Amino acid sequence: MKQLTRARITAVDAYDVRFPTSRRLDGSDAMHPDPDYSAAYVTIRTDAPDGLEGHGFCFTIGRGNEVAVAAIDALRPHLTGAELDGTLTGLADHYRALTGDSQLRWLGPDKGVTHMAIGAVLNALWDLHAKRAGKPLWKLLADLTPEELVALTDFRYLADALTPDEALLILRRAEPGKAEREARLRAEGYPAYAASPGWLGYSDAHLASAARRAVADGFTQIKLKVGADLEDDIRRCRIAREAVGPDIRIALDANQRWELGEAVEWTRALAGFDPYWIEEPTSPDEILGLAAIRRAVAPVKVAAGEHTANRVVFKQLLQAQALDILQLDACRVAGIPEHLAILLLAAQFGVPVCPHAGGVGLCELVRHLAMFDYVAVSGTLEDRTVEYVDHLHEHFTDPAVIARGRYTAPSVPGFSSTLRPASLHAYSYPNGAVWLAERAQGVA
Q1: Annotation says 225 is catalytic
Q2: Can you give the residue ranges of every domain in the chain?
Q3: Architecture of domain 171-422
Q4: Which residues contact 414 (CB under 8 A, 6 or more apart)?
Q5: What is the pLDDT of residues 82-106, one digit of tens each?
Q6: Positive or negative, the Cα torsion across 407, 408, 409, 411?
Q7: What does the pLDDT look like over 423-441, one tens digit per residue?
Q8: Among 78, 135, 339, 356, the one annotated catalytic
Q9: What is the pTM assigned to this prediction?
Q10: Any keyword Lyase (predicted)?
Q11: Which of 223, 225, 301, 395 is catalytic?
Q12: What percent of the chain has pLDDT over 70?
């Protein structure tokens, strides 16, 4: 791998960035009826002569974003003045330092706002590393050897499910055909599904037209939010099925709304519309409950993971056979070392990864993880798809691009996590131009 020159971190800045998506009910669901998609956004600068910056963020939905910013601020002493030696070992050292702070760790451990803040900072460090290497992140990771990937992975507390030797076997099995898969990825893209038609606050007419448009755009799966009212869900599922026809997959997402028995009864009531999966039917921490729901609602699949706190909980979900679909989130866990562990766990258990996206910047980030998984870990696209919503991409310098229902492979160096300066200033909360205008109109 290209040896990068040493640099020293000179500044770590955190910003509270919010978009007023609740005004149009974009992102609305049964548990979150009025989200304002937001990012606790990090910029890392160094004294390197190339002038490159690292950018990262964790995703929130409005109130509380300032708490995530404060958590990032609490990590600054670990970073300011620290050396970036341009090696994978150096990145691994930063991971261990941030996750190992004995006092901050108490606030989790390995979960919650502090863990998400660590993920934002580590995503920024990896963005900077990929920029300095001149590669998009998915390609940078795919070019690493199995031994390098294993050395980066956090295997703590996983020995009963995945050992470094077992991870090496998984990665070595994927090595044949890597070049062919990369070429296919560049030529054809990565499968996506459309979540935009199904926000719970949208009208029936909007649902029908958006569902038809998704099919016309090449998507072979859409997703509907459910869980607030059964009769409404039955009506909306009927509208969606009539709009897309019998051959398009329809996934359902309850966003943790139901008790266990209610989840089974409600899913069975919607089974006549041939749902492909039911997502987050109950609490994301209800491991045994998710396993029971999965057994009860088959052949409808159970999908979860966007709110799963860390690799250890993913391990237990897989051990309990609680998931048919693992929904990795790019901003929930502590960066690349933990993402690697989760992808390898999924491969070990033979469970497909269909990452969560949607919220501001998640589509931009998670495509890198899915593409790396395809090229270097799972080696397959069978039953794989990544969520896509058509909101807020214009605010990023390397926005997600969809062609014929598939994500195109990023070619710009980095993690695609850099906000446009104009967007950063306009949507900074509470004094960005957009929020000042909202208050002037008596809205915010």
Answers
A1: yes
A2: 171-422
A3: Alpha-Beta Barrel (3.20)
A4: 55, 127, 128, 130, 131, 136, 137, 398
A5: 999 888 999 999 999 999 999 999 9
A6: negative
A7: 999 999 999 999 999 888 8
A8: 356
A9: 0.96
A10: yes
A11: 225
A12: 99
